[in-house]
Amino acid sequence: MKLIVADDYEDLSRHALAWLRGALAGIDIPTVVLPTGNTPLGLYHNLATGSKGQFLANARFIQLDEYQGIPREDFRTLAGWFWRILLNPLSIPKTALISFDSSARDPDREAVRMEAVATKTDIDACVLGLGLNGHLGFNEPGSDFASQTRVVDLSADSIKSNAAYWGDEALVPRRAFTLGLGTLATSRHTLLLVSGPHKASILATALIGPQTPEVPATCLASFRDATVIADRSAIGAMPRGRSRHPSN
Ligand code: PGA
């Protein structure tokens, strides 16, 4: 696993753009998985600026995660967020996003459908954010490293961190769909973006702690080609000389 230390959030977002462009270079119709959240906003802003996101014009996007049990047209779906923040600004056609049906009558079957979509062709590049509890997507602590796409109960931490988006903790859906850790592990290239001092402790655990399902992000060390881009404020708590991963 490669670690890139960015000077600050802007530098992280620049590195992320360069990483994504490099990961997809030469692929006519790339398949990508991208996260929602605050951390990738700088990357998405960069992509939507001028023609910088042009290399995604023909891409297929597979949704990473989604709330379960809300109407598809609810503006708070993660798919809705993704359209507003990235896909609409890039003029991506509607058919290019393969998304979970948040209102599916049979959620388990919907998860099986998306697992089949995600594993039918290689995911060329996958970008992830790091939850304060170490989650990737909605693979909460305790997720098996070989887990497939499924419906999960959101952890108390995730409900809390999603409360701002919903206005109140009580309004946050309790269940969600997520691509599994085993599903994500099939990606040809994976990038974890981590910014801010509030992530320093969990980042240190993710990088130098023992691999355990209790910290889902520790699975990245076994991925095919994983890169972490973290800004200096997120690197803060890392004990010097103890990283098991080389830094560039
Ligand atoms: P954030 O979320 O980018 O808003 O910090 C990351 C996550 O919880 O997966």
- Secondary-structure element order, N to C: EHEHEEHEHEEHEHEHEH
Strand order of the largest sheet: 1-10-9-6-2-3-5
CATH-assigned fold name? Rossmann fold
CATH class: Alpha Beta
Write down how many β-strands occur, each being a DSSP E stretch of 2 or more residues: 10
Helical/strand content category: alpha/beta
CATH hierarchy: architecture? 3-Layer(aba) Sandwich
Q: Write down the Rg.
A: 17 Å
Which cofactors or ions or other ligands sit in this model?
2-phosphoglycolic acid
Q: Outline, from the CA principal axes?
A: globular
State the end-to-end CA separation. Answer: 11 Å
Main sheet specs: 7 strands, parallel
Beta strand %: 15-25%
Question: Unreliable stretches, pLDDT < 50, 5 or more residues?
Answer: 241-248
How many individual domains?
Answer: 1
Helix content: 25-40%
How confident overall, as mean pLDDT?
A: 95
Q: What is the count of helical runs?
A: 8
Structure description:
The C terminus is likely disordered. Helix 1 packs across helix 2. The protein is built from eight helices and ten strands. The strands form two sheets. The protein has a seven-stranded parallel beta sheet, sandwiched between helices. The protein has a three-stranded antiparallel beta sheet with strand order 4-8-7. The protein has one domain: Rossmann fold. With 248 residues, the chain is an alpha/beta fold. The site of 2-phosphoglycolic acid has 8 residues, from loops.
Itemize the secondary structure elements and their pairings.
Blueprint: E1 2-6, H1 9-24, E2 31-33, H2 41-47, E3 60-62, E4 65-67, H3 78-87, E5 97-98, H4 107-120, E6 125-129, E7 150-153, H5 156-166, E8 175-178, H6 181-184, E9 189-194, H7 200-208, E10 226-231, H8 232-235
Parallel strand pairs: 1-10, 2-3, 2-6, 3-5, 6-9, 9-10
Antiparallel strand pairs: 4-8, 7-8
The structure holds 2-phosphoglycolic acid (PGA).
